[in-house]
């Protein structure tokens, strides 16, 4: 292999792929990157056997070839080079790196030792706006929680329904659902569970890219792809295994009616929750006292060590008077994801799930379990 590529471009590519390159004592090959040149393209590939990432760049090609080298060492080296053209050449399983007055010889391995990353281009495909898709995914991804006993709830559930994608995540204490309408409808409906780590990598890699991303999926594999701006060719591909199992019927816990409804300023509510959290104690507990007659939402918290806190904020409140306690962190995270100036809270009872949603749109909802009164 013998190629020339700009340092900044190579640096950007390594930054994309190095995230899944892991130090694994049982499989040390996984802490390496496959560097490959073919048909005027440089390809970088890494994998942790669950997630695989490919990145391409246009290059000046003199000779095709490939080699496997340590990801961290290559990253540290390229990051310190000047922003000038970099020459890469393979010679006797060594990668020769030259840039201005810098010359390095990096020991490598044969590409035959590197795991093959599945290349999924069959099955169903859908195109979505990458930025909008990532914004939607970001609203639910952090709700999921690792679970050995119930791996199916440790990821993000996707329901593809013709012109609609539903994204759902839960940790048994709260649940978030985001709806995203798409411009290229599917011929049939699909459901899958995406690992949380994969979802986070998607946000990191595709979150700030403009244009569409293509999503290919089968019964056990999914692939996300963005294209180059210069030519009709992929720039980044992320492939991942899916979580096996059936996602629980989450619709059952979403309240269908309410006894009390609160509509108030999102920012004011956030400020009151944050202030109350200072005195919430080890249980993170804050209490809502809802007064429909006075149209006030009272917040209370107390700590044996620090003291107590009381405040209220006005709102449009209808229904029954109630007292409900929450884990302030769970409530705060849900309210923070509301994208409208006002937020609606709908309550069925003092021990029942509470529905949090925007007031002017129906594309997001958050359900949080209260702390049951002792």
UniProtKB/TrEMBL annotation:
It is found in: Cytoplasm. GO terms for biological process: DNA strand elongation involved in DNA replication. Residues 252-371 form the DNA polymerase III beta sliding clamp C-terminal domain. GO terms for cellular component: cytoplasm; DNA polymerase III complex. Residues 1-118 form the DNA polymerase III beta sliding clamp N-terminal domain. Keywords: Cytoplasm, DNA replication, DNA-binding, DNA-directed DNA polymerase, Nucleotidyltransferase, Transferase. The keyword Nucleotidyltransferase applies. Residues 130-249 form the DNA polymerase III beta sliding clamp central domain. Confers DNA tethering and processivity to DNA polymerases and other proteins. Acts as a clamp, forming a ring around DNA (a reaction catalyzed by the clamp-loading complex) which diffuses in an ATP-independent manner freely and bidirectionally along dsDNA. Initially characterized for its ability to contact the catalytic subunit of DNA polymerase III (Pol III), a complex, multichain enzyme responsible for most of the replicative synthesis in bacteria; Pol III exhibits 3'-5' exonuclease proofreading activity. Belongs to the beta sliding clamp family. Forms a ring-shaped head-to-tail homodimer around DNA. This is Beta sliding clamp. It comes from Candidatus Nealsonbacteria bacterium CG23_combo_of_CG06-09_8_20_14_all_39_25. The gene is dnaN.
